[in-house]
Write a sequence for this structure.
């Protein structure tokens, strides 16, 4: 029977020759992960399973990244619960402040997410790891606790949607963030609900790994169960020196069945800006230009990678942030931070007037280090702009790629990068 890449991964981990959409399965897990928001709840639930140890201390990852470094007493207590559990269980992949990063930047960087893996995480953006050809999806804390105890999880096999991006003639400054915002604008936030979003075509092949992570990261913003890109030479190059174990390669069969197939030409996709209060409110940069803002955020698990910082630095080099703007930059990991320092990127950003932070989710979820006041507007490279997402319920967040964000920081209003280049 012909299957998609998603179906093949699920079948392999369920010990079955084949699966079909809608089928309920129990499958073995390659990685179970949680952060300082969801981890403590899962740990509390884990205690109810009647087992003293996790299923495999090498297949659990715990990352304090949302409110870390601790912003208050409550967040300190949350992180302590996770830290104590990691020590007691001898969790191999616990990442303390100073070594940690934003989880969805950190774990691929560490070679812990590989092609063919089945991964669950108590964070909705776990779907990021589909960029390396893994099936990765977010779950609730109770399901995560069960995964910690048993190394298994149940799934309903999702229907698959295929999105083919033709051509390689991208408009200048357009990247993966624009492709996925454009697509979410077409689908809506529930247009792929509980479906696998498979990205393919010459346009996807032309994207860097950093851009692929961005696209898969935001599959959940269309309601998808997972986003996935078949591994290719760029994937293998990225994993060279990172992967610590062998991995299977899976590819969709040519006659695999999809519930929907949509095709686009990358040349037709302009820079995108998603208006408040939903990622689906995507418009072209031309429609958004001129909207006055108060803050710019560059970072997060969506666009906090090295290429994102390079792009921002390219736009900002030799320029100054508008005097009425706060520009906040959050590198995704310590490794990204150090490489950006070696390349002079951090110096360029600070010289322009940016405040550069240690890796943290921070303002993305309205956590800390960049909360918006009533009536304030931000341009952000993050993934969500729901009501109150970055602070006051009467604040506004506009989603864009790093080039647009950097240009907007210079002008004090939403701006096409060409206007400051």
């Amino acid at each position: 029977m012909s299957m998609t890449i998603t179906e093949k991964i699920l079948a392999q981990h369920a010990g079955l020759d084949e699966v079909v959409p809608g089928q309920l399965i129990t499958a073995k897990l390659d990685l179970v992960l949680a952060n300082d928001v969801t981890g403590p709840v899962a740990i509390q639930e884990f205690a109810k399973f009647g087992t003293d140890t996790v299923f495999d201390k090498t297949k659990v990852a715990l990352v304090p990244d949302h409110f870390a470094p601790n912003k208050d007493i409550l967040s300190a207590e949350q992180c302590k619960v996770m830290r104590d559990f990691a020590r007691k269980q001898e969790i191999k992949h616990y990442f303390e402040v100073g070594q940690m990063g934003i989880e969805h930047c950190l774990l691929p960087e560490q070679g812990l997410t590989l092609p063919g893996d089945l991964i669950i995480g108590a964070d909705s953006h776990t779907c990021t790891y589909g960029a390396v050809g893994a099936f990765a999806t977010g779950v609730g804390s109770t399901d995560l606790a069960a995964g910690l105890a048993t190394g298994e999880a149940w799934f309903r096999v999702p229907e698959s949607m295929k999105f083919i991006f033709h051509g390689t003639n991208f408009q200048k400054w357009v990247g993966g963030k624009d492709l996925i915002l454009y697509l979410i604008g077409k689908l809506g936030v529930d247009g792929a609900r509980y479906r696998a979003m498979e990205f393919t075509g010459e346009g996807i092949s032309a994207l860097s790994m950093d851009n692929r992570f961005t696209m898969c990261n935001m599959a959940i913003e269309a309601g998808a169960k997972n986003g996935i890109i078949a591994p290719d030479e760029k994937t293998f190059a990225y994993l060279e020196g990172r992967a610590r174990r062998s991995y299977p390669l899976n590819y969709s069969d040519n006659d695999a069945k999809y519930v929907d197939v949509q095709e686009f030409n990358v040349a037709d996709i302009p820079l995108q800006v998603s208006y408040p209060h939903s990622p689906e409110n995507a418009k072209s940069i031309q429609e958004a230009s001129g909207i006055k803002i108060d803050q710019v955020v560059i970072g997060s698990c969506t666009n906090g990678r090295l290429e994102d910082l390079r792009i921002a630095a390219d736009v900002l080099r030799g320029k100054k942030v508008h005097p009425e703007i706060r520009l906040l930059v959050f590198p995704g990991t310590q490794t990204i931070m150090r490489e950006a320092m070696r390349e002079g990127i951090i110096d360029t950003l600070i010289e322009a007037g940016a405040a550069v932070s240690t890796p943290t989710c921070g303002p993305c979820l309205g956590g800390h280090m960049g909360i918006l006041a009533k009536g304030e507007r931000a341009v952000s490279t993050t993934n969500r702009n729901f009501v109150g997402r970055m602070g006051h319920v009467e604040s506004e967040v506009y989603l864009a790629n790093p080039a647009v964000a950097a240009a907007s920081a210079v002008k004090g209003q939403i701006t096409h990068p060409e206007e400051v280049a």
